[in-house]
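Human: Here is a favour to ask of a fellow structure person. Comparing notes only helps if you start from a blank page. I am asking you to supply a protein in sequence and structure-token form. Write it directly below this note and I will take it from there.

Assistant:
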Amino acid sequence: MPDQHLLPDVIGNTPLLYLRKASELTGCHIYGKAEFMNPGGSVKDRTALGIIRAAEQAGELQPGGVIVEGTAGNTGIGLTLVANALGYECVIVMPQNASEEKISQLEMLGAELLLVPSVPYADTHHYIHTAERVAAGRRKDEAHGAIWARQFDNPANRQIHYDTTGQEIWQQTEGKVDGFICAVGTGGTLAGVAGALREHNKDIKIGLADPMGSALYSHFAGGGLRAEGESIAEGIGVSFVPGNLAGLELDFSCRVDDDEALPLIYDLLKEEGISVGGSAGINIAGAMAMARELGPGHTIVTILCDSGSRYQSKLFNPEYLWKRKLPYPHWIAN
């Protein structure tokens, strides 16, 4: 008989892809962790699994229980898939400006989906605050209980990336990694991978690639939580400091705008056959900036968070991009 794997068993162990053009332009070896190859299509499958397993171990999640989360989409997809596999229900609170593809997929997966206005974090109607209130209400009504996944502050998020993503990167590079950089949504990936890699080699450089509209670049530069501009990248860039980032020290940080990130996405697809979303474009631009900072010959790893197919209505919609005065290649307008 073949091995009897369940869906949670095949989350993680994604390959490292060599990013040829980014490497050639910088003289470094730049790799992307292909997280779009997880069963739910994103790096957030790891977060979902880590949060659910930790809640089970703590006795907070009972069979038939409900998981509530506020998310830009990918964590909701990961949570719903893992919950379906393990016998739980999911309630997902998501901003209305999330991509049509994510909304449709969550509906297809059977999540109970609540769409709320896209408002600043300080607003009580923000999707994270709404999810907290919904979870509190469900805990009173559900026979099998309910939890709020709280991915931004849940240590299980950071821990799963320490236990898996960071260790995989170390093994896949055979310890020959000089830098790791990515954007922050919840902070779990960056902080967890940083902890794992620095434990192996304290000299590995850790960096933040921050999209416009996020306040974290300013925060780590000592300028307080100050945001500038905006980005169409989803799931990354925040105006507060997630609990997952507590104690994290950076060696490098940069701010990336969409005009820089989008051409990288289109070139990667057309020239290397790799389809990624907006956050991966920010990450690749960040990896290239770190490569220039470190100099030729270094090995740098970043995260390819999800697939471009999840954003076809935005990233590959020339009318959408034209209205926002963003660059796009001639071949998507044909």
Remarks:
- The mean pLDDT is 95.
- The CA atoms of residues 208 and 253 lie 5 Å apart.
- Residues 155-172 form the longest helix (18 residues).
